[in-house]
Amino acid sequence: MPLADMPTLLAAHRAVGAFNFITLEVAEAIVAGAEAAETGVILQLSQNAIAFHGGLAPAASAALRLAEGARVDVAVHLDHATDEPLVDEALAVGIRSVMFDAAHLTDAENLERTAAVATRVHAAGAWIEAELGEIGGKGAHAPGVRTDVAEAVHFVRETGVDALAVAVGSEHAMRERSARLDDRLIAELAAAVPVPLVLHGSSGVADAGIDGAVRAGMRKINIGTHLNTVLTTAVRTELDRDPDAIDPRRWLTPGRAAVADEVRRLLDVISGRSAA
Ligand code: G3H
Ligand code: ZN
Protein backbone atom coordinates (compact mmCIF):
# COMPACT_ATOMS: atom_id res chain seq x y z
CA MET A 1 0.00 0.00 0.00
CA PRO A 2 1.19 3.60 -0.44
CA LEU A 3 2.20 5.38 2.76
CA ALA A 4 -1.07 6.26 4.55
CA ASP A 5 -1.78 9.86 5.46
CA MET A 6 -3.17 10.70 8.87
CA PRO A 7 -6.51 12.31 7.84
CA THR A 8 -7.41 9.27 5.72
CA LEU A 9 -6.41 6.87 8.47
CA LEU A 10 -8.39 8.77 11.11
CA ALA A 11 -11.44 9.06 8.86
CA ALA A 12 -11.48 5.31 8.26
CA HIS A 13 -11.29 4.20 11.93
CA ARG A 14 -13.20 5.02 15.12
CA ALA A 15 -9.70 5.46 16.62
CA VAL A 16 -6.21 4.57 15.43
CA GLY A 17 -3.51 2.74 17.38
CA ALA A 18 -0.13 4.50 17.30
CA PHE A 19 2.70 2.28 18.46
CA ASN A 20 6.26 3.37 19.23
CA PHE A 21 9.16 1.30 17.97
CA ILE A 22 12.84 1.37 18.79
CA THR A 23 14.09 -1.67 16.92
CA LEU A 24 13.37 -2.92 13.43
CA GLU A 25 11.80 -6.11 14.78
CA VAL A 26 9.22 -4.15 16.76
CA ALA A 27 8.34 -2.06 13.69
CA GLU A 28 7.89 -5.32 11.76
CA ALA A 29 5.74 -6.70 14.59
CA ILE A 30 3.51 -3.60 14.61
CA VAL A 31 2.84 -3.97 10.89
CA ALA A 32 2.28 -7.73 11.25
CA GLY A 33 -0.17 -7.15 14.12
CA ALA A 34 -2.10 -4.60 12.07
CA GLU A 35 -2.25 -6.97 9.12
CA ALA A 36 -3.56 -9.74 11.39
CA ALA A 37 -6.19 -7.33 12.76
CA GLU A 38 -6.91 -6.11 9.22
CA THR A 39 -6.80 -2.51 10.38
CA GLY A 40 -4.69 0.57 9.78
CA VAL A 41 -1.96 1.57 12.20
CA ILE A 42 0.57 4.32 12.97
CA LEU A 43 4.28 3.52 13.29
CA GLN A 44 5.79 6.08 15.66
CA LEU A 45 9.44 7.02 15.94
CA SER A 46 10.23 9.31 18.85
CA GLN A 47 13.08 11.79 19.13
CA ASN A 48 14.40 9.61 21.98
CA ALA A 49 14.45 6.52 19.77
CA ILE A 50 16.18 8.51 17.04
CA ALA A 51 18.83 9.61 19.55
CA PHE A 52 19.43 5.94 20.42
CA HIS A 53 20.12 5.20 16.76
CA GLY A 54 22.28 8.30 16.35
CA GLY A 55 20.18 9.73 13.52
CA LEU A 56 16.77 9.80 11.88
CA ALA A 57 17.31 8.41 8.40
CA PRO A 58 17.99 4.68 8.94
CA ALA A 59 15.02 4.04 11.25
CA ALA A 60 12.74 6.37 9.30
CA SER A 61 13.66 4.71 6.00
CA ALA A 62 12.90 1.28 7.46
CA ALA A 63 9.51 2.45 8.75
CA LEU A 64 8.59 4.10 5.45
CA ARG A 65 9.55 0.96 3.46
CA LEU A 66 7.59 -1.24 5.90
CA ALA A 67 4.55 1.02 5.51
CA GLU A 68 4.74 0.86 1.72
CA GLY A 69 5.02 -2.93 1.81
CA ALA A 70 2.12 -3.46 4.22
CA ARG A 71 -1.23 -5.03 3.29
CA VAL A 72 -3.05 -2.43 5.45
CA ASP A 73 -2.82 1.35 5.75
CA VAL A 74 0.27 2.35 7.74
CA ALA A 75 1.28 5.93 8.55
CA VAL A 76 4.72 6.91 9.87
CA HIS A 77 4.80 9.57 12.58
CA LEU A 78 7.61 11.52 14.25
CA ASP A 79 6.73 11.44 17.96
CA HIS A 80 7.65 13.93 20.72
CA ALA A 81 10.00 16.04 18.63
CA THR A 82 11.34 18.93 20.70
CA ASP A 83 14.02 19.92 18.16
CA GLU A 84 12.64 22.00 15.30
CA PRO A 85 15.38 20.94 12.84
CA LEU A 86 14.38 17.32 13.42
CA VAL A 87 10.84 18.15 12.27
CA ASP A 88 12.23 19.63 9.06
CA GLU A 89 14.51 16.62 8.57
CA ALA A 90 11.57 14.25 9.02
CA LEU A 91 9.58 16.09 6.35
CA ALA A 92 12.61 15.95 4.06
CA VAL A 93 12.94 12.16 4.33
CA GLY A 94 9.23 11.65 3.54
CA ILE A 95 7.51 11.50 6.92
CA ARG A 96 4.10 13.16 6.54
CA SER A 97 3.05 13.38 10.19
CA VAL A 98 4.85 14.90 13.15
CA MET A 99 4.33 15.73 16.80
CA PHE A 100 6.03 18.95 17.85
CA ASP A 101 6.33 18.86 21.62
CA ALA A 102 7.06 22.24 23.17
CA ALA A 103 5.68 21.29 26.59
CA HIS A 104 8.98 22.23 28.21
CA LEU A 105 8.41 25.89 27.27
CA THR A 106 6.04 28.34 28.89
CA ASP A 107 2.48 28.26 27.54
CA ALA A 108 3.06 31.47 25.56
CA GLU A 109 6.31 30.18 24.04
CA ASN A 110 4.75 26.79 23.38
CA LEU A 111 1.93 28.46 21.44
CA GLU A 112 4.28 30.72 19.50
CA ARG A 113 6.77 27.98 18.51
CA THR A 114 4.03 25.45 17.75
CA ALA A 115 2.26 27.95 15.48
CA ALA A 116 5.52 28.62 13.61
CA VAL A 117 6.29 24.92 13.18
CA ALA A 118 2.67 24.22 12.13
CA THR A 119 3.02 26.77 9.34
CA ARG A 120 6.15 25.00 8.02
CA VAL A 121 4.60 21.53 8.37
CA HIS A 122 1.45 22.60 6.53
CA ALA A 123 3.51 24.28 3.80
CA ALA A 124 5.09 20.86 3.24
CA GLY A 125 1.60 19.33 2.97
CA ALA A 126 2.01 17.35 6.20
CA TRP A 127 0.07 16.91 9.47
CA ILE A 128 1.02 18.15 12.92
CA GLU A 129 0.10 17.11 16.46
CA ALA A 130 0.97 19.26 19.47
CA GLU A 131 0.69 19.10 23.23
CA LEU A 132 -0.33 21.74 25.70
CA GLY A 133 2.57 22.87 27.86
CA GLU A 134 2.98 23.02 31.59
CA ILE A 135 -0.49 22.87 33.08
CA GLY A 136 -0.64 23.90 36.72
CA GLY A 137 3.14 24.01 36.82
CA LYS A 138 3.57 20.31 36.07
CA GLY A 139 4.03 18.21 32.97
CA ALA A 140 0.87 17.81 30.96
CA HIS A 141 0.61 14.13 31.85
CA ALA A 142 1.62 14.24 35.48
CA PRO A 143 -0.96 12.58 37.73
CA GLY A 144 -3.72 14.95 38.76
CA VAL A 145 -3.04 17.47 36.00
CA ARG A 146 -5.84 17.95 33.49
CA THR A 147 -6.20 19.92 30.27
CA ASP A 148 -8.51 22.92 30.49
CA VAL A 149 -11.17 22.86 27.77
CA ALA A 150 -11.07 26.60 27.02
CA GLU A 151 -7.26 26.61 26.93
CA ALA A 152 -7.29 23.67 24.51
CA VAL A 153 -9.73 25.41 22.18
CA HIS A 154 -7.63 28.60 22.27
CA PHE A 155 -4.37 26.68 21.66
CA VAL A 156 -5.75 24.82 18.64
CA ARG A 157 -7.26 27.97 17.15
CA GLU A 158 -4.07 30.00 17.56
CA THR A 159 -1.61 27.32 16.42
CA GLY A 160 -3.62 25.69 13.64
CA VAL A 161 -2.48 22.19 14.67
CA ASP A 162 -4.25 19.12 13.29
CA ALA A 163 -4.45 17.10 16.52
CA LEU A 164 -3.98 17.73 20.22
CA ALA A 165 -2.49 15.60 22.99
CA VAL A 166 -4.46 16.22 26.17
CA ALA A 167 -3.96 15.41 29.83
CA VAL A 168 -6.89 13.35 31.08
CA GLY A 169 -5.31 11.06 33.66
CA SER A 170 -2.69 9.09 31.77
CA GLU A 171 1.03 9.27 32.44
CA HIS A 172 4.00 8.25 30.33
CA ALA A 173 6.04 5.08 30.89
CA MET A 174 3.72 3.31 33.34
CA ARG A 175 4.49 -0.39 33.74
CA GLU A 176 1.14 -1.19 35.31
CA ARG A 177 -2.09 -0.61 33.42
CA SER A 178 -3.74 1.14 36.37
CA ALA A 179 -4.33 4.74 35.20
CA ARG A 180 -7.85 6.03 35.67
CA LEU A 181 -8.97 8.34 32.88
CA ASP A 182 -11.46 11.18 33.14
CA ASP A 183 -13.92 10.14 30.42
CA ARG A 184 -16.20 13.05 31.21
CA LEU A 185 -13.39 15.52 30.48
CA ILE A 186 -12.49 13.59 27.31
CA ALA A 187 -16.08 13.98 26.12
CA GLU A 188 -16.08 17.71 26.94
CA LEU A 189 -12.78 18.20 25.11
CA ALA A 190 -13.96 16.15 22.12
CA ALA A 191 -17.10 18.27 21.87
CA ALA A 192 -15.23 21.59 22.07
CA VAL A 193 -11.87 21.00 20.36
CA PRO A 194 -12.22 20.94 16.56
CA VAL A 195 -9.34 18.47 15.91
CA PRO A 196 -8.72 14.81 16.88
CA LEU A 197 -7.62 14.19 20.46
CA VAL A 198 -4.58 12.06 21.25
CA LEU A 199 -4.12 9.89 24.33
CA HIS A 200 -0.46 9.67 25.35
CA GLY A 201 0.87 7.21 27.90
CA SER A 202 -1.72 4.59 26.96
CA SER A 203 0.54 1.78 28.24
CA GLY A 204 -0.77 2.63 31.69
CA VAL A 205 -4.41 2.23 30.66
CA ALA A 206 -6.22 -1.13 30.82
CA ASP A 207 -8.27 -2.40 27.88
CA ALA A 208 -11.54 -1.18 29.41
CA GLY A 209 -10.02 2.27 29.98
CA ILE A 210 -8.85 2.46 26.37
CA ASP A 211 -12.29 1.42 25.12
CA GLY A 212 -13.93 4.00 27.41
CA ALA A 213 -11.58 6.75 26.24
CA VAL A 214 -12.29 5.97 22.60
CA ARG A 215 -16.03 5.91 23.24
CA ALA A 216 -15.66 9.32 24.92
CA GLY A 217 -13.87 10.74 21.89
CA MET A 218 -10.15 9.87 21.82
CA ARG A 219 -9.01 9.29 18.23
CA LYS A 220 -5.28 8.39 18.42
CA ILE A 221 -4.05 5.99 21.08
CA ASN A 222 -0.26 6.13 21.73
CA ILE A 223 1.31 2.98 23.15
CA GLY A 224 5.04 2.52 23.71
CA THR A 225 6.22 1.14 27.06
CA HIS A 226 3.79 -1.77 27.03
CA LEU A 227 5.33 -3.15 23.83
CA ASN A 228 8.78 -2.90 25.43
CA THR A 229 7.46 -4.98 28.33
CA VAL A 230 5.97 -7.57 25.99
CA LEU A 231 9.15 -7.80 23.90
CA THR A 232 11.55 -7.99 26.83
CA THR A 233 9.44 -10.52 28.73
CA ALA A 234 9.32 -12.82 25.70
CA VAL A 235 13.05 -12.44 25.05
CA ARG A 236 13.90 -13.08 28.72
CA THR A 237 11.72 -16.18 28.75
CA GLU A 238 13.43 -17.52 25.65
CA LEU A 239 16.94 -16.80 26.96
CA ASP A 240 16.08 -18.47 30.27
CA ARG A 241 14.76 -21.47 28.37
CA ASP A 242 17.80 -21.64 26.09
CA PRO A 243 20.80 -19.99 27.81
CA ASP A 244 23.13 -21.18 25.04
CA ALA A 245 21.27 -19.21 22.35
CA ILE A 246 23.67 -16.93 20.48
CA ASP A 247 22.02 -16.18 17.14
CA PRO A 248 19.74 -13.15 17.84
CA ARG A 249 17.08 -14.70 15.64
CA ARG A 250 16.59 -17.39 18.29
CA TRP A 251 15.23 -14.85 20.80
CA LEU A 252 14.06 -12.08 18.48
CA THR A 253 11.68 -14.44 16.68
CA PRO A 254 9.55 -15.17 19.78
CA GLY A 255 9.93 -11.55 20.89
CA ARG A 256 8.66 -10.22 17.59
CA ALA A 257 5.79 -12.72 17.53
CA ALA A 258 4.70 -11.73 21.05
CA VAL A 259 4.63 -8.04 20.11
CA ALA A 260 2.67 -8.75 16.92
CA ASP A 261 0.07 -10.73 18.90
CA GLU A 262 -0.32 -7.92 21.44
CA VAL A 263 -0.61 -5.25 18.74
CA ARG A 264 -3.34 -7.30 17.02
CA ARG A 265 -5.17 -7.70 20.33
CA LEU A 266 -4.90 -4.00 21.21
CA LEU A 267 -6.06 -2.94 17.75
CA ASP A 268 -9.18 -5.06 18.26
CA VAL A 269 -9.81 -3.15 21.51
CA ILE A 270 -9.12 0.25 19.91
CA SER A 271 -11.29 -0.51 16.88
CA GLY A 272 -14.11 -1.78 19.11
CA ARG A 273 -14.08 -5.25 17.60
CA SER A 274 -13.36 -6.99 20.87
CA ALA A 275 -15.17 -6.41 24.14
CA ALA A 276 -12.73 -4.81 26.55
O1 G3H B 1 4.12 9.25 22.62
C1 G3H B 1 4.15 8.09 23.00
C2 G3H B 1 3.20 7.58 23.96
O2 G3H B 1 2.65 8.58 24.71
C3 G3H B 1 3.62 6.32 24.66
O3 G3H B 1 3.52 6.37 26.05
O4 G3H B 1 5.14 4.58 26.56
O5 G3H B 1 3.56 5.40 28.28
O6 G3H B 1 2.72 4.07 26.35
P1 G3H B 1 3.75 5.03 26.85
ZN1 ZN C 1 3.70 10.53 24.47
From TrEMBL:
Domain of life of the organism encoding this protein: Bacteria
Pfam families named in the record: F_bP_aldolase (PF01116)
InterPro entries linked to this entry: Aldolase_TIM, Class_II_FBP_aldolase, FBA_II
Alphabetized Gene3D superfamilies for the sequence: Aldolase class I
Cofactor: Zn(2+)
Protein name: Class II fructose-bisphosphate aldolase
Lineage: Bacteria, Bacillati, Actinomycetota, Actinomycetes, Micrococcales
